[in-house]
């Protein structure tokens, strides 16, 4: 297989070394017998599929970053080990995608230079391991975190138009090595098969926008108002969660609602705490080591006031933003204590924001008393009842009777023949489609979705018309004055047609150019073969 013009022997050798792990010079006699076999082609196809497989996993890894803090909390509750596992995920994914990408680029360059695709056995083993690792990651995602499949579907509404352009561009660039392969191979059946598969893939990509839908493909004047922000346990990226500092930081981010979790101490004092145990967000293991594993409700208020509820935030750094805190903020965070519901209501009333909370644990034997105690604190606080958003479902009718001004938020979709109309719903962002959000908006039902941290997700929900979102990243979403992208349908149609036409012309050009190159090589190869035949005849004489 002769080297095409423009591919020097040094370049060919440098490409062969990392791919085949052999130092093979470009001299013909040293490469005699080295040809790309069907077995080698099958490994190239396997490499291409692995590249696509790891690319899909990279996409998923980026998408699930929105919810990865939940995974970190889950691991801590199970193993009592805190680590930002998102860094591990991204580093491992970057290594896998980089390895498969480099091998694929080498293989394509070798094909263009007319060199044999002799993949070394070490690479083959590593590629098989790559497949197993990524397959295990997808399997674990499907078993333990199935709702992320819904997140991926939502993400396609934000990235679909751009993924289409990227896919068309990638497949267009593939035309050069593909044309080189078609003009080099001697098997007519293989050439026809490869060409048909490529044409089918390109036609599917050219027509893909017919199936792409996104709420952000709309006219500028159709864009709904920006969703209100609900601080998830306050502003947990800027302060320890469920503390007064976190509430004040959330107010600085212009949130309209402080979302929190309430528990009731053993002596009847409602306080802010999310976890059933105190180990993650306090120093209970140091102060009360023998009682650290007990439920939060087993401690009386005096004991709870002895706990440090802020130092863990500085030590474990649950979010990268902790590193950028000012010295004053660090000092304030270190001084935080567990606040009572009464203190939180007073701060909310003073800041003129609403407060929304869950009452935990729902399965407690004394839950009705928890409801009554919590209601008593709310009524005595003097906060306007319309600023209180009640989430717990247990004994909701009692709450309506004792505090009729409280706004009730339901953690479910509305059902037919409701006794009372549902005016507020609070759901995971994966549980409502864009169509449902629009319908609820038309029916004047307020929809709050949680937990939304990434700007791309916020943009999709903004375009869909959601009323508000619960977020950890209020300081980021506060600065967004517009969705990341917004395209009128006519503009998107124009982009679609232009991209497809340019791609088609480049593919035609690639095949024509490679055909000319192949014709130039054939006379040279024929002359070489004649010369070798004459030399062989003379040696035999």
Automatic annotation (TrEMBL):
Residues 227-481 form the GP-PDE domain. GO terms for biological process: lipid metabolic process. SUPFAM superfamilies: PLC-like phosphodiesterases (SSF51695). One of its GO terms (cellular component) is plasma membrane. The lineage of its organism: Eukaryota, Metazoa, Chordata, Craniata, Vertebrata. The keyword Transport does not apply. This is GDPD2 inositolphosphodiesterase. Keywords: Glycoprotein, Hydrolase, Membrane, Transmembrane, Transmembrane helix. One of its GO terms (molecular function) is glycerophosphodiester phosphodiesterase activity. Belongs to the glycerophosphoryl diester phosphodiesterase family. Signal peptide: none annotated. It is a multi-pass membrane protein. The chain crosses the membrane at residues 41-65, 85-113, 125-143, 163-183, 190-212, 493-513. It comes from Quiscalus mexicanus. It comes from the Eukaryota. It holds the Pfam family GDPD. It is found in: Membrane.
């Amino acid at each position: 297989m002769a080297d095409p013009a423009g591919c020097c022997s040094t370049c060919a050798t440098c490409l062969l070394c990392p791919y085949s792990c052999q130092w093979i010079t470009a001299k013909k006699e040293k490469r005699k017998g080295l040809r790309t076999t069907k077995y080698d082609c099958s490994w190239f196809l396997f490499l291409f599929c692995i590249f696509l497989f790891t690319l899909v996993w990279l996409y998923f890894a980026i998408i699930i970053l929105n919810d990865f803090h939940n995974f970190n909390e889950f691991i801590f509750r199970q193993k009592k080990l805190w680590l930002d596992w998102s860094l591990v995920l991204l580093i491992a994914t970057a290594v896998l995608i980089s390895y498969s990408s480099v091998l694929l680029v080498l293989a394509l360059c070798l094909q263009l230079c007319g060199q044999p695709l002799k993949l070394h056995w070490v690479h083959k083993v590593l590629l098989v391991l790559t497949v197993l690792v990524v397959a295990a990651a997808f399997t674990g995602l499907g078993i333990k975190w199935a709702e992320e499949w819904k997140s991926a579907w939502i993400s396609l509404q934000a990235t679909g138009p751009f993924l289409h352009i990227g896919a068309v561009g990638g497949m267009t660039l593939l035309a050069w090595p593909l044309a080189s392969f078609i003009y080099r191979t001697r098997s007519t059946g293989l050439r026809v098969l490869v060409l048909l598969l490529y044409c089918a893939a390109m036609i599917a990509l050219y027509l893909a926008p017919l199936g792409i839908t996104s709420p952000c493909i709309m006219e500028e004047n159709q864009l709904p108002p920006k969703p209100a922000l609900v601080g998830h346990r306050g502003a947990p990226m800027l302060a320890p969660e469920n503390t007064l500092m976190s509430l004040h930081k959330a107010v600085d981010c212009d949130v309209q609602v402080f979302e929190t979790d309430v528990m009731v101490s053993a002596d009847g004092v409602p306080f802010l705490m999310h976890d059933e145990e105190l180990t993650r967000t306090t120093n209970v293991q140091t102060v009360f080591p023998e009682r650290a594993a007990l439920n939060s409700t087993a401690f009386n208020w005096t004991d709870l006031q002895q706990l440090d509820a802020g130092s863990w935030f500085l030590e474990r750094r649950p979010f990268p933003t902790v590193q950028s805190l000012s010295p004053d903020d660090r000092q304030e965070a270190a001084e935080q204590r567990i606040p009572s519901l009464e203190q939180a209501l007073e701060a909310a009333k003073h800041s003129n924001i609403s407060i929304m909370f869950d009452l935990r644990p729902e399965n407690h034997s004394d839950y009705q008393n928890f409801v009554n105690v919590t209601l008593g604190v709310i009524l005595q606080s003097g906060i306007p009842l319309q600023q209180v958003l009640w989430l717990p479902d247990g004994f909701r009718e009692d709450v309506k009777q004792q505090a009729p001004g409280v706004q009730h938020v339901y953690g479910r979709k509305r059902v037919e023949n409701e006794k009372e109309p549902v005016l507020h719903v609070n759901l995971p962002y994966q549980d409502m489609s864009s169509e449902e959000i629009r319908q609820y908006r038309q029916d004047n039902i307020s929809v709050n979705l949680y937990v939304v941290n990434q700007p791309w997700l916020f943009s999709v929900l903004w375009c869909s018309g959601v009323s508000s979102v619960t977020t950890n990243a209020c300081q980021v979403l506060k600065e967004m004055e517009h969705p990341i992208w917004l395209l009128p349908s006519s503009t998107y149609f124009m982009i679609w047609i232009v991209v497809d036409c340019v791609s088609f012309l480049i593919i035609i050009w690639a095949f024509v150019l490679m055909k000319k190159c192949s014709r130039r090589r054939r006379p040279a190869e024929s002359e070489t073969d004649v010369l070798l035949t004459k030399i062989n005849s003379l040696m035999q004489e």
